[in-house]
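pls design
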């Protein structure tokens, strides 16, 4: 491979590898942590936030609304005490097949024995019979098909999941041969039929029921603005975005149902609390995204809710391009994809999918990177390299662009893992090291080439801001935006310096009340690589009109200085709109 094809900064002096990692602001790559039994206390959540978690994920495939509500209450308290804003992602159940174990007794399965999968949920789960929640499995599979069952699915090393091979179909039952010995524990186990089309809705009944119960539990009050220059920040750069606080410092994301009562609940409580994201599990077609968005579009402010399509099987892979056009972001569920695809094909899909997300300017989130840290304090060598490869960008001889993801999603590692805080910290450190050797110059050229000419007005401004920042070696890019789109386009070009997205609130009315926009846009930056959102106080203009009126720009610069990101004599690139014109300017700071 010719050296010019590598998107890796060269040369790397071997001596520098032995130098201690320097403490600096958070990694540009964001970290999504799943909260659960091992990570739901206020103390642990606070530590996770300080370690670098910017998005908290709630998996509703297990647990009830009351349990998750308690965790959310703890998250609210942790956000307030740590002064670190954290978005919340709710992961829907989707078209997930499950084994029902009502007795919750451990089930031991031995290799070469046979087990029957039955839709009769009245039967008790045992080593001979496993009741499932889907009556159509017998019609969907055939002899020789592969099925995986487990609490967290088969990884190749876990003994908590089992690999089954279909032997025969008997009426509605499926008789399988057990391929590996395992012990299943708990009340529910995920069942995945490899490369089999399952006729189940993307938004399941559990999603609908959970959403309804979740909404009713406890309403939160709406967001309130605080004075941008009266709030005290911590030393880390990531705290620059903590400018607007909810009265309960909490935002959430819901699975949406077509049930009229649910729509009524969401249209009141949901709209009031500014729902941010929807993680749509088992997205298989663009229509899945369109249907979810249709529900949201009827609910006022929820039309701004971002939908992340979770690609988990071959069906979603096949329709990836059309799904990407409809979705606001993509989550690559490598656990399930690793079952549906041959192992040697997983990396090809990951690299191709993330590259397409990068070129579209939409966030890409990669899962299952440090599974071993569920039980161990350190990742394996392969896992550490895997994290770095998810962040770095290269081009191979087969002309596939390997582009960096926006965020790393941690599942079992923080949900039930023994070391949730250490896992987040370790992944953040690996991401930060990988970002240091990222060859932005080549990435920038390839992105510009892909976009082509003529560029749109906004894309031209965004790419020019990044080019200027690189040429003058700016310490930070400050982007004034109302919708957040300009800042996301700047982040699309992967500048090596942080992008401070200053969201300027706008006053709006629904003929019943007046309110400010901006909170949505600021929070939704928490999953975009390199973006650090700041919601401006609406009482301050983008530029000072007189000597006594402190501008938002000055406040942003002051906080940059306080965090250590901006120093005296540094250069800062500012991208903003002045009247009808978009302006990119360079500021050199004085003492």
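designed seq:
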């Amino acid at each position: 491979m010719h050296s010019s094809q590598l998107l890796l900064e060269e040369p790397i002096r071997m001596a520098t590898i032995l130098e201690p990692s320097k403490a600096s602001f958070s990694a540009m790559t964001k970290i999504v942590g799943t909260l659960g039994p091992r990570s739901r206390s206020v103390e642990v959540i606070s530590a996770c936030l300080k370690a670098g978690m910017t998005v908290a994920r709630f998996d509703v495939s297990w647990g009830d609304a009351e349990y998750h509500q308690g965790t959310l209450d703890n998250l609210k308290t942790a956000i307030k005490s740590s002064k670190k804003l954290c978005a919340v992602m709710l992961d829907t159940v989707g078209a997930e097949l499950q084994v029902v174990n009502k007795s919750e007794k451990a089930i031991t399965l031995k290799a070469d024995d046979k087990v029957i999968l039955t839709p009769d949920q009245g039967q008790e789960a045992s080593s001979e019979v496993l009741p499932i929640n889907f009556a159509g499995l017998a019609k969907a599979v055939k002899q020789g098909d592969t099925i995986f069952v487990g609490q967290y699915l088969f990884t190749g090393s876990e003994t908590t999941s089992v690999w089954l091979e279909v032997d025969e179909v008997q009426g509605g039952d499926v008789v399988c041969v057990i391929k590996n010995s395992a012990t299943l524990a708990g009340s529910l186990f995920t069942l995945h039929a490899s490369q089999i089309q399952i006729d189940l809705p993307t938004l399941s009944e559990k999603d609908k029921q959970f959403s309804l119960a979740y909404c009713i539990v406890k309403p939160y009050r709406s967001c309130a603005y605080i004075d941008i220059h009266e709030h005290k920040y911590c030393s880390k750069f990531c705290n620059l975005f903590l400018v607007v606080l909810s009265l309960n410092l909490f935002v959430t994301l819901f699975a949406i149902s077509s049930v009229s009562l649910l729509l009524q609940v969401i249209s009141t409580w949901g709209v009031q609390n500014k729902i941010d994201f929807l993680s749509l599990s088992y997205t298989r077609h663009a229509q899945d995204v369109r249907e979810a968005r249709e529900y949201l579009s009827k609910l006022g402010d929820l039309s701004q809710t971002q939908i992340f399509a979770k690609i988990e099987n071959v069906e979603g892979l096949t329709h990836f391009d059309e799904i990407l056009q409809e979705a606001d972001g993509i989550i690559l569920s490598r656990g399930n994809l690793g079952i549906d695809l041959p192992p040697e094909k997983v990396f090809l899909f990951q690299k191709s999918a993330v590259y397409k997300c990068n070129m579209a300017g939409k966030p890409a989130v990669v899962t299952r990177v440090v599974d071993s840290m569920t039980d161990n304090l350190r990742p394996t060598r392969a896992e550490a390299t895997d994290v770095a490869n998810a962040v770095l960008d290269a081009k191979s001889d087969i002309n596939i662009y390997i582009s960096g993801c926006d965020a790393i999603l941690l599942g079992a590692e923080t949900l039930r893992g023994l070391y949730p805080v250490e896992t987040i910290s370790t992944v953040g450190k690996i991401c930060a090291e990988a970002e240091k050797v990222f060859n932005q110059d080549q990435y920038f050229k390839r992105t510009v080439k892909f976009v082509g000419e003529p560029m749109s007005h906004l894309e031209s401004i965004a790419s020019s801001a990044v080019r200027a920042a690189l040429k003058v070696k700016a310490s930070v890019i400050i982007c004034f935006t109302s919708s957040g789109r300009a800042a996301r386009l700047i982040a699309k070009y992967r500048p090596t310096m942080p992008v401070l997205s200053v969201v300027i609130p706008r006053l709006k009315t629904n003929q019943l009340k007046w309110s400010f926009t901006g909170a949505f846009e600021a929070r939704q930056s928490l999953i975009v690589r390199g973006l650090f959102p700041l919601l401006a106080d609406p009482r301050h203009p983008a530029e000072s009109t007189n000597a006594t009126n402190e501008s938002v720009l000055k406040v942003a610069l002051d906080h940059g200085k306080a965090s250590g990101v901006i120093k005296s004599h540094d250069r800062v690139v500012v991208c903003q709109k002045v009247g009808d014109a978009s302006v990119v300017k360079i500021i050199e700071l004085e003492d």
